[in-house]
Amino acid sequence: MTFTSLGISKSFVKELHNQGYESPYPIQEKAIPSILEKKDVLGVAKTGSGKTVAYVLPILQLLKDQKELKNRHIPVLVLVPTRELAIQVEEVFKVFGQGLDYPAKSKAVYGGVSINPQMKTMNNVSVLVATPGRLLELIRSKAVHLSSLSTLVLDEADKMLNLGFKEEVDEILALLPKKRQNILFSATLNPEIERINELLLDNPTVVNIIPEVETVELLNQVGYFIDAEKKGPLLRFLLKDKEMQQVLIFTSSVFKADQLTVKLRKNGFNARAIHSKKSQGARQEALRTFKAGNLPILVATDLLARGIDIEFLPFVINYELPRSPKDFIHRIGRTGRAENPGEAITFVTEEDKHHFRVIQKKMKHWVTMIDGGKLI
Description:
Blueprint: H1 13-18, H2 26-36, E1 41-44, H3 51-62, E2 76-79, H4 83-97, E3 106-109, H5 115-120, E4 127-130, H6 132-140, E5 151-154, H7 157-162, H8 166-173, E6 181-186, H9 191-200, E7 205-208, H10 212-215, E8 220-225, H11 231-241, E9 247-250, H12 254-266, E10 271-274, H13 280-291, E11 297-300, E12 315-318, H14 325-332, E13 343-348, H15 353-363, E14 368-371
Parallel strand pairs: 1-6, 1-7, 2-4, 2-5, 3-4, 5-6, 8-13, 8-14, 9-11, 9-12, 10-11, 12-13
Helix pairs in contact: 2-3, 3-4, 6-8, 14-15
């Protein structure tokens, strides 16, 4: 199976090769033909399965046939839950749209930064990638109009609902024309997603790629029993012993992320923290440096568990456990993505043992445990 056999134009093939795509991933193979036929699509696939490309390519191809629209009337809207995901999706549209011989301007808008510069860049936008709150602000300011929308994408729909965007999403949906193509992607299929499916989608093509709770078995997972006060020495030992050149470390709070980063730097490790208290510019710069391979250690909170998309990330470390088993799965899902190997490491204190057993039971996978105290 090739991308051209799915109906994708040869104009994208060179860039697909540059991005490392030899052949379509399952989500792309099943979703692309239906999107090209302008059918509604419900896609359930774990983060990192290639779903962004699955809708970016056919949407860009369909834009060739779009009628000339009034300025600031957006034909394609992609709703996402976080700023990081908005920037990431916009980058994919720009990468594949750069060689097109027809207009396909894409723009990401999100909160946490001034709205005025975003308002000024809405001219002739074909694809708007937006978080719900900022989109509503732009609509109320009449900087953007949705009456001519032809395609709506809800990306990470489950995360959007979990973060409390339901009312804002409902408000946006009420402003859209009834006749349009709807594309909904989610990492999980829960009652809320099924409700949106029933309300939003019209006889959709359903693409259900292996549920995320089962895909954790594709990762190499290992846990270390360790006393809380010995976590730092164990972490430094593993960073050196495994010669980690690129590792994402998760903590449970902003305070702990900053504290751990300071300790790592004092011990000679090049590390930076990324969390909600950092400025948007600082977050983007840290993420860009990490993705480029120029920053070996990134310390993050759960807010960014889905917003960090790195195709070949070899290591994830749970320095502290998250509250929810779902958050644990999203964390370790940063590695072992798109058929690439990865290792997920978890630190477990005496107080964590019961909670970690619950997490393992929920993900239907029992992790090999090692006595970390014997290593340091």
